[in-house]
Structure formats: C-alpha cells, structure tokens
Amino acid sequence: MFAKEGIGLILGALAMFVILAVLGSLTGGWLGWVITSFGLVLLFFNLWFFRDPKRTIPDVDEWTLLSPADGKVVLIQDVHEPLYLKGPAKQISIFLSPLNVHVNRTPIGGVVEFDDYVPGDYLVAWHEKASELNERSQLGVRHSSGQKVLFKQIAGAVARRIVYHVTVGDEVTTGDRFGIVKFGSRMDILMPPGTEILVSVGDRVSGGLDRLARLNEKSESESQASGQDSTNDSAQGETA
C-alpha cells in the first residue's frame, strides 16, 4: 500500500523511468546502463518512501499517547509552550530519516482545537531551532480530561511539502492517520508537565504502534478544583 499523497510523485518517477529506459536503450553501452539504472533507482526510492503499511493500532487506554511517526527519539526536554498549552510542557522530538515510513498519526484522541501552518526555513531536522524556524504544521488536541497536547510536523533540509488532513473541530482517535511530510522530517510532541514519559533518547519508535507517554489521569481542571477546595478548607479552619 502506498500513501495517497505520494501517488503523483510515484507516477512521475514511473514516467521518468520509462523515458530514461528508452534513452538508455538508444544510447547503449555502459552509459545507457547508467541512464536506465538512474531511472530505476528514482522509481524505487519513491515507492519505498511513500509506502504506507497497514498497521493494527494497539488497544491502549485513553491516557496513553502513541508515537505519531516512525523514527528515532532525539530530544526529551522541559520547555515553555506559548501557542496552545501556554505554559510549561514536556517535549519529545522524533527524527524521521528518508528511509522511515513518513505517514503521520495522531498521538492521542480528542478534539482538534488548534490548527496552524507556518511557512519557514529548511534547517536540518535535528537542529535545535528547527521547531521554531522551519516550515511546519502545529496541531493542538484537547483530551477528554481537558488536558492539551500539541504536535508539530516539521520539514527538514530535504522535505519541502507538509500535508495534513485535519482542522479545528475534528474529532480524532489515537493512531488515526492524519498526514505526511515528504522526504525527511521531524515530529515534536508537547504535553502537560505531569505527563509520564515512556521512551528515552535514542529509542526507535513506530507510528501508531509504540507507547510514547501517558497523561496524568488527574486532569488540570480536577487539580485546580482540588486546589480550590484546599484553599476553602484552610480559610474555614482559620475562621473557626
């Protein structure tokens, strides 16, 4: 199975292969072989890159985040997230090489509340400023507990086209296929500070299959309510 976003490029590579094969046949000799081989490599690279293997999403509870992409975990850090969480957050970054499956999946279920596309530069995907300066999509999902998760498709030095198929108001399920970044990229996932991280830097993960993190089952609203109750109890004690 191939990603629908890559069908045009696959057909283009097929046409190029046919043209180069004819040209190689007419040229003959070692040069003709080189020309034909180049077209074949181009075709197979596109077929490999745009593969979209069927995956059975594991049965996880609603608090668990699955990896949104295939690749290598290159960064785990505490940050301040100003766009959607608007406060402290835990960040996991996954680097996708051109050899990885590039189909992206939603890390957790909920309602899409934030949808932003930012044109930008094309620094190498592992650059520390890539998430701030590169072309990217930024999608925010509110979990049923009220907690927010932001995930970003980030273009790299080779990637030049970000595609996603969700927008504000859409309901998504953990592991849903939502887009692709063509020819190398990075995915950032930003979660509330109380989230339990289940991976380490250097781990290799598969989109829609591997557990990435787990939200705190005590939602932000419940924590605030608990804090308010404690304040009220304290005030009543002082009054008494």
Describe the structure.
A hairpin with a 5-residue loop joins β6 (136-142) and β7 (148-155). The protein folds into 2 domains: 4-49; 64-217, Glucose Permease (Domain IIA). It contains 4 helices and 14 strands. The chain has helices at residues 7-27, 29-49, 130-133, 220-239, and strands at residues 64-66, 71-81, 87-96, 103-105, 110-118, 136-142, 148-155, 161-164, 171-172, 177-182, 185-191, 196-197, 204-205, 211-214. α1 (7-27) runs antiparallel to α2 (29-49). The model is unreliable at 221-240 (pLDDT under 50). It has an 8-stranded antiparallel beta sheet, with no helix packed on it. Strands 1-14-12 form a 3-stranded antiparallel beta sheet, with no helix packed on it. A 3-stranded antiparallel beta sheet has the order 4-10-8, with no helix packed on it. By secondary structure, it is an alpha+beta fold.
Q: Report the top-level CATH class of the largest domain.
A: Mainly Beta
Total of helices: 4
Strand order of the largest sheet: 9-5-6-7-11-3-2-13
Strand content: 25-35%
Count of the separate structural domains = 2
The gyration radius over C-alpha positions equals 22 Å
Query: Kindly state the mean pLDDT as a whole number?
Result: 83
Secondary-structure element pattern, one letter each: HHEEEEEHEEEEEEEEEH
Content-based structural category? alpha+beta
Looking at CATH, which topology of the largest domain would you report?
Answer: Glucose Permease (Domain IIA)
Percent helix, as a range, is 25-40%
Oligomer: single chain
The description of the largest β-sheet is: 8 strands, antiparallel
Low-confidence stretches: 221-240
Query: How many angstroms separate the termini?
Result: 71 Å
- Structure summary, number of beta strands: 14
From the coordinates shown, what is the CATH architecture of the largest domain? Distorted Sandwich
Q: Which shape, going by the Cα principal axes?
A: elongated
